[in-house]
C-alpha cells in the first residue's frame, strides 16, 4: 500500500505541477489575447459549464474511480466499467441536448447577450467530449494507472493551450478556446481508451450483464455524490457567477485572475485528494481506521506547512509579481488576492480530508457539512458583492473556504477517526510565526523586483524548512523518507541537504 501510494502520488503531483507550470506560463497570454472583457466572458462560461457538468459527470466519474479499485468479485471491473460507461454516455447525450435546446429557444441571448449563443452551442458539444475524457481518466486512476492518466492530462493541457491560443489569435476569441477544449478532450479519450482496453475489455464491459452488481449501493453513491459535488463546486463558481450578474465582465475577469493565482496553492492538496479517494477505499472496507488516522494526520501537517509557505510567499511578492505577470492593468487584483489567501490555506487543508472521508462511502455527513459552507458562501457573496465588489467576493469566498477545513474535521470524527492526531499544531504555528516576518522583511529589504523574485523564494524556502526542523514541526527522519521517494537528480540534492 505504501509503495502504491508513493508511486501514485508522485505521478499525480508531477503531472499537476507540470500543468500548473503550463498554466502559469500561458495564463498571461490568454488574458492578453482575450482582454479583460473576453476573459471575463470565458471565466463566466467555464463556471457555468463546471456547474452543468456536475449534473452530467459527477455521479459517474468518481463512482467508477472508487468502485473499479475495489475488485470485489470475478469480472467485477468489466461490469463496473460497462455500467458507468453506459451511464456516462446517456447523461452526456441528455446534457448536450439540454444545452442546445435552451440555446435554440433564445433564452441565452435574452438573459446574457447575443454573442453567448455561439458559446453555448460550443458548450453543448463540449459536454460530450468532456464527459468521455473524465470517465476515461477516472477509470485509469481507479485501475492504478496514474502514470498514464496524468501524462495524458499534461499532453491534453498542451494541446488545449496551443490550439486555443492559435484560434484566439486568428480571431475566434473565446470560441477558439472552447473548441480547443473539445479537441484536447477527444484526443485524451481516444488514447485513454486504448490504454484502458489493455486492462479491461471494452467490448466485454459493454456486453457484460451487471445483474450481480450492488445497484442500490452504486446508485446511492452516484446520487449523493452529485449533490455533494454540486455543493462543493458552488464554492468555486458562485462568486464568479454573481460578479458576472451583479457587476460586469471586466471586473469578473479581474477577480478570476486573482482567484486563479490563489488556487495554484491547491496543487499538492488536490493531487493528494485525487489519490486518496481510491487509495483509502480498501482501508475503509477493511476497517483499518488507525491507518486512516495516521495517514490523515501526517498529510494534514505537511499540507499546512507547504501551503502556509506558499501563502507567505504570495503575500510578500504579490505587489511585484502581479503587474509583471498579468500587466499593469491587472494591478487591481492585489486586493482580492490577498483577501483570498487565508481561505486558500484552509481549503488546502480540507481537500485531502475530503478525499479520505468520501472514500468511506458515507456521504450524508459530507453533504450536510458542505451544505453549511455552500449556503454561507452564497449568502455572503450576495450581501458583500453589491457593497464591496471584488473585495466582497474575496471576503465571502475566503470565509467559506476556511470553514471547509473545520467541517471536514467534524465529519472525520463522526466517521471514526481523528485527522488532527499527529498534526503538531503548536510547532507548526510557531514555524509560521517565526518564518513569516523574516521572509516578508527580506522582501522589503530588496529594492529590485527581478532580484526579489529570484532570491526571496529560494531563501524563504530554505529558511522556512530550517525553522520547521528547529521547532520540531518536521524531523530529519521524515524528510529522509520523503527525499528517498524523489527521483534523481532532484532527489539526490534533497538527500544531500537532509544529511
UniProtKB/TrEMBL annotation:
Keywords: Cell membrane, Membrane, Transmembrane, Transmembrane helix
GO CC terms: plasma membrane
Signal sequence region: none
Residues that span the membrane, as ranges: 12-30, 42-62, 83-107, 119-136, 148-168, 174-197, 218-238, 258-278, 299-318, 330-351, 363-385, 391-416, 428-446, 452-474
UniProt keyword Cell membrane, yes or no: yes
Membrane association type: Multi-pass membrane protein
UniProt main location, coarse: membrane
Highest taxon of the lineage: Archaea
Listed name of the protein: Membrane protein involved in the export of O-antigen and teichoic acid
Organism: Halorientalis persicus
Amino acid at each position: 500500500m505504501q509503495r502504491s501510494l508513493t508511486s501514485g502520488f508522485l505521478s499525480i503531483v508531477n503531472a499537476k505541477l507540470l500543468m500548473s507550470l503550463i498554466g502559469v506560463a500561458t495564463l498571461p497570454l490568454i488574458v492578453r489575447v482575450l482582454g479583460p472583457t473576453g476573459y471575463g466572458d470565458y471565466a463566466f462560461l467555464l463556471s457555468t459549464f463546471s456547474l452543468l457538468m456536475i449534473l452530467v459527470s459527477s455521479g459517474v466519474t468518481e463512482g467508477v474511480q472508487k468502485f473499479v479499485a475495489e475488485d470485489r468479485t470475478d469480472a467485477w471491473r468489466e461490469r463496473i466499467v460497462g455500467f458507468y460507461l453506459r451511464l456516462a454516455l446517456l447523461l452526456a447525450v441528455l446534457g448536450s441536448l439540454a444545452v442546445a435546446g435552451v440555446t435554440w429557444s433564445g433564452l441565452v441571448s435574452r438573459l446574457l447577450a447575443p454573442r453567448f449563443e455561439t458559446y453555448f452551442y460550443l458548450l453543448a458539444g463540449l459536454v460530450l467530449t468532456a464527459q468521455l475524457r473524465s470517465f476515461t481518466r477516472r477509470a485509469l486512476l481507479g485501475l492504478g494507472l496514474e502514470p498514464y492518466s496524468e501524462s495524458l492530462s499534461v499532453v491534453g493541457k498542451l494541446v488545449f493551450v496551443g490550439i486555443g491560443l492559435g484560434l484566439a489569435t486568428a480571431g475566434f476569441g473565446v470560441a477558439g478556446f472552447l473548441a480547443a477544449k473539445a479537441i484536447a478532450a477527444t484526443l485524451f479519450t481516444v488514447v485513454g481508451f486504448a490504454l484502458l482496453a489493455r486492462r479491461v475489455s471494452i467490448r466485454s464491459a459493454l456486453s457484460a450483464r451487471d445483474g450481480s452488481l450492488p445497484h442500490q449501493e452504486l446508485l446511492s453513491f452516484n446520487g449523493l455524490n452529485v449533490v455533494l459535488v454540486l455543493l462543493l463546486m458552488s464554492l468555486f463558481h458562485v462568486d464568479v457567477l454573481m460578479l458576472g450578474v451583479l457587476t460586469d465582465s471586466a471586473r469578473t475577469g479581474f477577480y478570476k485572475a486573482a482567484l486563479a493565482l490563489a488556487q495554484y496553492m491547491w496543487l499538492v492538496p488536490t493531487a493528494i485528494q485525487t489519490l486518496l479517494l481510491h487509495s483509502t477505499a480498501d482501508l475503509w472496507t477493511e476497517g483499518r481506521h488507525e491507518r486512516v488516522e495516521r495517514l490523515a494526520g501526517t498529510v494534514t501537517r505537511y499540507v499546512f506547512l507547504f501551503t502556509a509557505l506558499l501563502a507567505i510567499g504570495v503575500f510578500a511578492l504579490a505587489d511585484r509579481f502581479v503587474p509583471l505577470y498579468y500587466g499593469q492593468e491587472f494591478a487591481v487584483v492585489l486586493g482580492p488576492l490577498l483577501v483570498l489567501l487565508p481561505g486558500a490555506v484552509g481549503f488546502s487543508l480540507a481537500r485531502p480530508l475530503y478525499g479520505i472521508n468520501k472514500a468511506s462511502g458515507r456521504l450524508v455527513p459530507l453533504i450536510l457539512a458542505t451544505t453549511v459552507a455552500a449556503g454561507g458562501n452564497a449568502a455572503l457573496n450576495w450581501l458583500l458583492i453589491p457593497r464591496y465588489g471584488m473585495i466582497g467576493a474575496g471576503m465571502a469566498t475566503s470565509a467559506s473556504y476556511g470553514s471547509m477545513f473545520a467541517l471536514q474535521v467534524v465529519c472525520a470524527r463522526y466517521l471514526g477517526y481523528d485527522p488532527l492526531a499527529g498534526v503538531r499544531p503548536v510547532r507548526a504555528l510557531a514555524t509560521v510565526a517565526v518564518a513569516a516576518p523574516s521572509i516578508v522583511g527580506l522582501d522589503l529589504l530588496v529594492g529590485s523586483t527581478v532580484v526579489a523574485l529570484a532570491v526571496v523564494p529560494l531563501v524563504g524556502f530554505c529558511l522556512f524548512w530550517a525553522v520547521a526542523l528547529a521547532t520540531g514541526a518536521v524531523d530529519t527522519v521524515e524528510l529522509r523518507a520523503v527525499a528517498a521517494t524523489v527521483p534523481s537528480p532532484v532527489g539526490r540534492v534533497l538527500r544531500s541537504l537532509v544529511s
